[in-house]
Design brief:
Blueprint: H1 4-8, E1 9-16, E2 24-26, H2 27-40, E3 45-54, E4 57-66, E5 82-93, E6 96-104, H3 106-114
Parallel strand pairs: 1-6
Antiparallel strand pairs: 1-2, 3-4, 4-5, 5-6
Length: about 120
């Protein structure tokens, strides 16, 4: 059975993070990364706050929440939760997502997890 990502992403899908110039991942690596987040933050949720559509582009502003099950990006496990904003710009091709440019405010998440 195909995963949800395999069903909605084109075979040549690219996920562009913006952390390093020109850094984009293919579909298989993106699926692995999302799976890793699902394991490290098992209650992670993405709440869609706003959607804008223009031609073959869909912009989604959302809120990501979760409680890491262990250390996250070098921050020791504290049992605390985080809430951050995320922006995704999707390119749609033949009814599937062909490319995503996205940014999440992980720096804010780390600050929330470290807060006393």
């Amino acid at each position: 059975m195909k995963t949800l990502q395999e069903q909605i992403l084109t075979p040549d899908y690219e996920s562009c993070w913006g952390y390093l110039p020109g850094e984009c991942w293919g579909r298989d690596n993106s699926i692995r990364v999302v799976g890793g987040f699902a394991k490290s933050i098992p209650d992670m949720k993405f709440d869609i706050k706003e959607v804008l559509v223009a031609g073959d582009r869909v912009v989604v502003r959302g809120e990501v929440t979760g409680t890491p099950a262990g250390d996250l990006f070098g921050v020791p496990h504290s049992g605390k939760s985080f809430r951050i904003m995320a922006i995704d710009i999707q390119t749609i091709k033949d009814g599937k997502i062909a490319r995503t440019y996205h940014l999440e405010n992980w720096l804010s998440a780390l600050g929330q997890l470290r807060a006393k």
